[in-house]
Design brief:
With 294 residues, this protein is an alpha/beta fold. It has 3 domains: 5-89, Arc Repressor Mutant, subunit A (Orthogonal Bundle), CATH 1.10.10.10; 93-160 and 267-293, D-Maltodextrin-Binding Protein, domain 2 (3-Layer(aba) Sandwich); 163-265, D-Maltodextrin-Binding Protein, domain 2, CATH 3.40.190.10. The protein is 41% helix and 21% strand. It has 10 helices and 13 strands. It has helices spanning 5-17, 20-27, 31-45, 61-89, 101-108, 112-118, 170-176, 223-231, 241-250, 280-293, and strands at 50-52, 57-59, 93-99, 122-128, 142-146, 155-168, 191-193, 201-202, 212-213, 218-220, 237-240, 254-255, 265-272. Strands 3, 4, 5, 6, 11, 12 and 13 form a 7-stranded mixed sheet that branches. Strands 1-2 form a two-stranded antiparallel ribbon. Strand 1 and strand 2 (57-59) form a beta hairpin. Helix 1 (5-17) packs across helix 2 (20-27), helix 1 (5-17) packs across helix 3 (31-45) and helix 2 (20-27) crosses helix 3.
C-alpha cells in the first residue's frame, strides 16, 4: 500500500512543530487525526520514524533518512502547483486545433498573428480535415464543427453563425446567363459536396418548400475546392459567408436568386472534451475565437 500526501504532510509537520499537537494546529486537523496518519505511515513503511514521549518527539535514524526524501517530495509538489498557477496566469503549452480547410483558411488563420501576440507561450498545431474526427484518437484539444452537432459526449462553445448563399462568378454568368428563377438552375452547371448530402440542399424557396435538393454536376469534399471552381467560372455553388464574404465584396462572386433565398445560418461551434477544469491554453483560445467571430 502506497503512502499518501496527507501522511507525508503530517510527518513533516510533527517534526517541524516538535509535537503532534503543534502539527494538528498547523494543518488544521485533530490530534487524533495526525496520530492516526503517523501510525498508518509507519505501518506501511514497516519501521519507526519517531520516538514519542510525553515531553517530546524525536526522529529515529530511519526517520531522519525518510525526512530528507519527504521534504524533497513535498517541495516538488509545491513547485508543480506553482508552475500550474503560472500557466493559468500566462497560458502555455501545445494547443492542437482541428477544423475544415475553408474555416481554417478563412476564419482561423487570419486570427493567428493576434493570438500569438497575446499568448506567445502557446504552441499552435493546426490540422485540417473535411470530416468530423475523433478528438481523443487524434489527440486534438479543440475542433471547430460547422452545422448541427451530433456527438453528445463533447462540450460545445458556440462561436458564431454563418449564412449560406447561392453564388456564381461574373465570368460564368456572362457565358451561361443569369438564372431568374429557382427552376432555371436545372439548365446550369451546379457544384456540390461529395458528403454530407445535407450540404446539397440549398436554401431556395419554391413549390418544393424552403430548400431545393440539387443534383451536382461536379462534387468535391472541401468547400474551398468548390469555391475555387466557382471563382474559375466552372459553375454555380452554395457556400457559407465565412469563406465568401470577401469574394462578394470584391465582386468575384455574385449572389443569385436573392428574393428566393431563405435566411439559413449554419451554427459554428468549438467542441472539446472536459472532465475536470478546462486547461488555460484551451480556455483562452475559445475566448479569443468567440470574441472575434461572435
Amino acid at each position: 500500500m502506497k503512502t499518501t500526501l496527507e501522511e507525508l504532510q503530517a510527518f513533516v509537520a510533527v517534526v517541524d512543530g516538535g509535537s503532534i499537537t503543534a502539527a494538528a494546529d498547523q494543518l488544521g486537523q485533530t490530534v487524533s487525526g495526525i496520530s492516526r496518519a503517523l501510525g498508518r505511515l509507519e505501518k506501511k513503511l514497516e519501521t519507526t520514524l519517531l520516538r514519542r514521549t510525553t515531553r517530546r518527539t524525536e526522529l529515529t535514524e530511519e526517520g531522519q533518512a525518510f525526512l530528507l526524501r519527504t521534504r524533497a517530495i513535498l517541495a516538488s509538489i509545491d513547485d508543480a502547483e506553482e508552475h500550474m498557477a503560472a500557466r493559468r496566469q500566462q497560458p502555455a503549452g501545445r494547443l492542437r486545433v482541428n477544423a475544415a480547410t475553408p474555416f481554417m483558411l478563412h476564419a482561423v488563420v487570419p486570427l493567428v498573428p493576434a493570438f500569438r501576440a497575446a499568448y506567445p507561450q502557446i504552441t499552435l498545431e493546426l490540422d485540417t480535415d473535411e470530416l468530423n474526427i475523433d478528438l481523443l484518437e487524434r489527440r486534438t484539444d479543440v475542433a471547430i464543427r460547422i452545422g448541427p452537432l451530433r456527438d453528445s459526449t463533447l462540450h460545445a462553445r458556440p462561436l458564431c453563425t454563418s449564412r449560406i448563399r447561392v453564388l456564381a462568378s461574373p465570368a460564368y454568368l456572362a457565358a451561361e446567363g443569369k438564372p431568374r428563377a429557382v427552376q432555371d438552375l436545372a439548365g446550369h452547371t451546379l457544384l456540390g459536396f461529395t458528403q454530407p448530402e445535407s450540404l446539397n440542399r440549398w436554401p431556395l424557396r419554391g413549390i418544393h418548400g424552403d430548400e431545393w435538393a440539387v443534383q451536382p454536376h461536379i462534387t468535391a469534399s472541401s468547400g474551398e475546392t468548390l469555391r475555387q471552381l466557382a471563382l474559375q467560372g466552372v459553375g454555380i455553388v452554395c457556400l457559407s459567408d465565412f469563406m465568401t464574404t470577401e469574394d462578394r465584396v470584391r465582386g468575384d462572386l455574385v449572389q443569385l436568386l436573392v428574393k428566393d433565398t431563405v435566411d439559413v445560418r449554419q451554427p459554428i461551434n468549438a467542441v472539446y472534451y472536459r472532465n475536470t477544469q478546462l486547461a488555460a491554453r484551451i480556455a483562452c483560445f475559445l475566448d479569443f475565437l468567440q470574441a472575434r467571430l461572435g
